[in-house]
Automatic annotation (TrEMBL):
This is Sulfur reduction protein DsrE. SUPFAM superfamilies: DsrEFH-like. It comes from candidate division WWE3 bacterium CG06_land_8_20_14_3_00_42_16. It comes from the Bacteria.
């Protein structure tokens, strides 16, 4: 299955759970893409010992079947640069992700 996860919040527990789901899907053999939009581009800054988002992202990015793309406009609004954990993309990437996926989940 091709799973798309759209994160539009920086709420730590929500994003931690979304990434746990993403990692579970990868472990089942699925392909997973995460698109970050709005305040979701700030997701990694909310990592804590209780909700270790950075650990989940690190695990996620180890898979060849995993991809993260972030809204470049949303990043620019927040004066945030592109990184491996938050690579800049655009609305065209979001469209392709939705069009190519079997399931789309939003958080």
């Amino acid at each position: 299955m091709k799973l798309a996860i759209i994160l539009s919040t920086k709420h730590a527990e929500t994003n931690w759970n979304a990434l746990r789901l993403a990692n579970l899907a990868l472990s089942k053999g699925d392909t997973v893409a995460v698109f970050l939009t709005g305040e979701g581009v700030e997701y990694e800054q909310m990592s804590s010992s209780k909700f270790n988002i950075k650990e989940q992202v690190g695990k996620f990015l180890q898979s060849d079947n995993a991809k993260i793309v972030a809204c470049g406009t949303c990043m620019a609004i927040r004066k945030q640069g592109s990184s491996e954990e938050c690579p800049e993309g655009g609305i065209e990437d979001l469209y392709s992700l939705v069009a190519d996926s079997d399931k789309v989940i939003t958080f």
